[in-house]
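Reopening this one. Same input as before:
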Amino acid sequence: MYLYATCLVWVCGSVWAQEPRTHEFGRMTVREFMESERLRETGAEAVVLYSLGDYAFLHDDWFMEGKEPFPVFSAGLETRIKILSPEGVRYGMFEFPYEEFSWPDGIFDIEGFTHNMDDSGRIVSVPLKLSDMSDADAGAGERVRRIVFPDVRDGSVVELRCVQRSRHTRMPEWRFQRGIPVLVSELVYTTCPYLGYSPVLKGARRYDYTEKRVVKGRQRAAYEYEPDYLVLRYGMKNLPAFPQEEYAGNAVDAVVRLVFRPEFSLSPRTGARTSYTRTWRQVNTELSKERDFGRYVQAAAKEYRKVREAVSGEAGGSVARQLYAYVRDNYAWNGVQVACASGRVADLVRSREGSSADLNLFLAGLLRAAGTDAVPVLLRVRGSGSVEREAPSKDAFNDVVIRVTDEEGVHFLDASERFAGFGELPARCADMEGLVAEPDTEEWVMLSQEQVAFDGREVGIVVDTAGIADVSVVRTFDGAAAMNLRSGCGGSADALARMVAGEEGGVRPLDPKQVQAIADLCREKDWLLLVDEVQTGIGRTGALFCYQQYGILPDAVSLLITAAEQVQRAGKSPFGGPPKPVDRLNCILCGADAVEVAIAQIALRGGVSEFCGFFIQFDRLLDVLFDAVSVFIA
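Same output, byte for byte:
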């Protein structure tokens, strides 16, 4: 399937992929719009027509008067996306994270348009307004700028241009490939005379086109030294959608992308060169001396005397088990996942809440003070790519766990997971490779679970002489499966029993008269009728869809993704005939969030301010009144 999709995108893209600079931002011709319609042959939800990046460092020589001026990183983006299905409207929303209260971090110069073709064949372009943008708190001192394009529907073309600025000197990677096909993706990188980076292409052997231009350095009053710099251009065309489902673990490693490795820095005043090329031994040694890592562990060890009194009354288990349970049960994870501590030990003790590094490094200090061999292990969690061994840097990691060696053996601990047992790791850390953080050493270990995940069912059936069957079902959980179950029910025994017995108390078929009354009410009020067939569709109740047995005709049906794909491949909808956009929402919605998807589509396609309707699940009934816009934007 992957090769077929690649060839199909190449055939269509070879006609349409062209130099993106020939397009005029904010203006789309009828010819361009009609040519973009040919991309429906790809079968994709949406297609990136082009994505242009512009990376550069801006030198602010006045902000730090009398000191070394710092460069401000600027990342420009210009992109066009063609929406090819009702499900593809989600690509009409963009999110950009940035640091709060950190000048000059932020998103600037935002411009955008939604292009549609009206019934007369004329292109109607709707510009972005301030009301289409919002900011939300993302936690840990970060905010997210959310942009929702207006009037996005099947066939729309959305166009965005903006600039993101940051004081950080770490260069973000540029992704050529995305979850939908990309016709043209290009990055222009203007090198900084004072910060040297080495661009490395990942996921592909070569670029489709490149360009290098030398710009002579300029003499500036604040600087005594400014060398020449380069303007580099990297481009790729006709990239297929990334098939993430085909990759287990770190799918990010297979995505076609451009990463930047730091090499050196130069002083703007003296030209003194500092090399960033180092070994993992040096990284570990430096970490042991830093306040947010090695010295944090030392400070945590001083708290052991107070903690020892708190755990002295604990019965059973080794010292390591008691201290692990103490930190896990008395300190809450704030959801921030980092490799180095984000504050002081005193702050953690006072607030009883911290990042994953705060909790685990605190645990390491307590264990060492108790005489237990405890060493931090740095890792890059599942889904964020693997560590590049050839580029040693502490920035390569985004989490930390603790390796404990005692009389029971070797264990890996993570105190941020409230419902994990001793030696159990959350899914984001399990089966990942980590660096043991000991000074002047380089040791890599595989983080494995101590117990194999198990979810078993034992069914017993006893039939008496009267032919009545007594059925008993016993479910057994172990390892990660048990941890996930505990986490899912919040540790409540009552919730655990309900989850094991069945969702919301098991299957409870609806009364046909009640369902018919709801359908009649929806027709009378002109409300939408949404049906969830995730557990009852595709013949599970005898008919193809359960609603057919109730004699109703819904406006939308939610299915499992695999089932929806089968219907779509057959070229038919459950309502008869080929799927097509209509005034009311007649489509198949995939996944568990069918209601939210339906509301979002109504809000985007019809501009409806309020949505009234019923959402039916045939094993239970939820009558709801929605505010479409607020649910989608919130």
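So the earlier flakiness isn't reproducible anymore. For the record, The mean pLDDT is 76.
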